[in-house]
Amino acid sequence: MATFLRFGLVGAIGFVVDSAVLYAGLWLGLGLLGGRIASYFVAATATWYLHRRVTFRATVPPSFAEWGRFLVSNALGGLVNVGGYWALVLAFPFCARHPVVAVALGAIAGIAINYTLSRRVVFRQG
User: Fold this and answer.
1) For the chain, what is the total number of helices (H) and then of strands (E)?
2) What are phi and psi of 125, to 5 degrees?
3) What does residue 82 show for φ and ψ, rounded to 5 degrees?
4) Which pairs count as long-range contacts for 22-30, CB under 8 Å and 24+ apart, including other chains?
5) Mean pLDDT per 10-residue segment, the chain (126 residues)
6) What is the 3-state composition of the chain as percent helix, strand, coil, each rounded to the nearest 5?
7) What ranges in 28-98 are assigned the alpha helix state H?
8) Residue 34: which residues within 8 A CB-CB, separation 6 or more?
9) What per-residue confidence (pLDDT) applies to 125?
10) Residue 3: Cβ-neighbour burial (10 angstroms; 0-12, 13-18, 19+)
11) Which of 53, 85, 98, 126 has an alpha carbon 20 to 30 Å from 37's alpha carbon atom?
């Protein structure tokens, strides 16, 4: 249970990173989808690092292979996350005007998938 709580804490930090990069991307003219894709990859990289240090307390040095495993194994959760976001901003004008709401709902939709795959595939012990 403690690991899942740490996962949620890191996820909350990832949400802040994700939202900040999305709004920066909107300011730069990337649009709702382009900004979200960029923000997802920045947030995924930040959460990979924090999950390895805080959530799963990995003892091996970070590697490009581990980062890649994290991105690939969490792709399903990422698709649910970004797909849910995109569906919400298209379907609800409120979410298009306030995309942070859609980011939060997308993240909630992908969390169980990402936790399970991170624990069993990326940061498995032994």
Assistant:
1) 6, 0
2) -90, 130
3) -70, -40
4) 22/99, 22/100, 22/103, 23/100, 26/99
5) 90 94 97 93 95 92 92 87 92 95 90 87 76
6) 85, 0, 15
7) 31-50, 64-73, 75-91, 93-97
8) 25
9) 65
10) middle
11) 53
Q: Are 35 and 89 in contact (CB under 8 A)?
A: no
Count of all residues that appear for the chain in the document = 126
Check: CB of residue 14 under 8 Å from CB of residue 46: yes
Which residue is listed with tokens 């495993």? Answer: 69
Query: What is the model's pLDDT at position 7?
Result: 92
At 25, which amino acid appears? G
